[in-house]
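Hi there,

I know you've been waiting on this one. I reran it after we fixed the sequence typo, so this is the corrected version. Both the input and the resulting structure follow.
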Amino acid sequence: MGRRQRGPTTKGSQGYNRNNSEDFLSKNALKTDVWVTESGLQCEVIDASDSEEKPLIHQAVRVHQRITLIDGSIIDDTYKQAVPAEFLLEEAIPGYQEGLLMMTLDSRYRFFIPSDLAWGKRGAGKKIGPYAALIIDVRLLHIA
């Protein structure tokens, strides 16, 4: 019997993204400053705050965020644009929701989001391919 083919491995393809995302997340989970939740979301505290205020799922948040793919491709960077993003927490992808719900006001975290907690098989537009993991560096600025 021959080896089983894993599918196409061209950059941006399902097989390529899935394999690279799984490899990246497996290695990243071994870092001492990263912890992994039950769902598979990986988290790192960059800057803790003294606040005890955390958002609830039905609230709106204002954040600075840098969203990248694991290869460093930038999807969004409000730090650079100097204009925070505002959205209802319940409208965010599942991994981002889970992470933001753990954060306290004015803290800064980095989330490593597996594709099944992000856009999964369908991807999102031309920037986020199928099965792509995301990295989100976020500072929680305001809860409404």
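Quick highlight: DSSP finds three helices and seven strands in the chain.

Best,
R. S.
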